[in-house]
Amino acid sequence: MEHMKPHTDLDIFHAVVDAGTFTGAARQLGITHSAISKRIAQLEQRLGAQLLIRSTRRMRLSEAGQLYALETRELQERLRHVEQEIAEGSGALKGRIRLSCSHALGKRQVMPLLLRFMERYPEVIVDLTLSDAVVDLVHEGMDLAIRSTTQPELGLIARRLATNHRVICASPDYLASHGTPRSVPELAEHVSLILNLPGGFNAWGLTSLPDMRCGFLSNSLETLHAACLGSRGIACLPHYLIADDLASGRLIPLLEDVRRDGADTSLYIVRPETSILPRRVRVLMDALIEGFETG
């Protein structure tokens, strides 16, 4: 007698659609070819329609099969999430969480919180992607992201974490060589270090930023930070990235009194609006929110 794993009809049907053959689906699900064939036949009998058209060389979806595949794909995913949620609710947290944030933020503020979370929930696998570019959460299959922005994207569920205060700054050596700007127009005589990504980051929180000679561009805040410490020009950097440098005098804040109200962005934790939230993701969100509040 065949031993059948508890796969649903949807699991089996979509495995056949994805694999293109009963043999491929059987290999994917770990059951036999005959078990696959039997379950598909039972499904077609229950629906009263042929879903798969078989021939000696290939298999294709019938019109009814195409409709069934289209309309049940999301249902299958939702069912998988619900079953996973129920299984998690009865035991220890486990599974993978995919998270995205910028390099500097990830290393300096997020990673310590993740280490604390992983120590508490050792069966959860955290998959962290660091990128200073905005990652498409749905396309990349991300559960969460931490973003610095004035307004979260439409289509995302967002929770504010903290203010992301930014500071216009330069090294003492740069200022000794080029002078210290005392007003916004005086910036025109200086060299800028800017982020080569779209968005309002390079406005520096000023009503109008004069044309400056560009000394260095990068897609990474950390490399702008290094260039600023290396006396290559003036940059506008997050306070969390340069707090130690400001305290030690390695960097000097500039024009703090002329930055406009609302110039700072906020840090948000965001997730796709349509996703079902597994318990492990909800617990990580709570841990990150608490960590930023107490940090």
TrEMBL record:
Q: Which residues form the HTH lysR-type domain?
A: 9-62
Q: What protein does this entry describe?
A: LysR family transcriptional regulator
Tell me which PROSITE patterns the record gives: HTH_LYSR
Species: Cobetia amphilecti
- Note whether DNA-binding occurs among the keywords: yes
Q: Which residues form the signal peptide?
A: none
Is Transcription given among the entry's keywords? yes
**Which superkingdom?**
Bacteria
Family, according to the entry, reads as follows: Belongs to the LysR transcriptional regulatory family.
SUPFAM superfamilies reported in the protein's UniProt record: Periplasmic binding protein-like II, Winged helix' DNA-binding domain
**InterPro entries linked:** LysR-type_TF_proteobact-type, LysR_HTH_N, LysR_subst-bd, WH-like_DNA-bd_sf, WH_DNA-bd_sf
Keywords (alphabetical) are: DNA-binding, Transcription, Transcription regulation
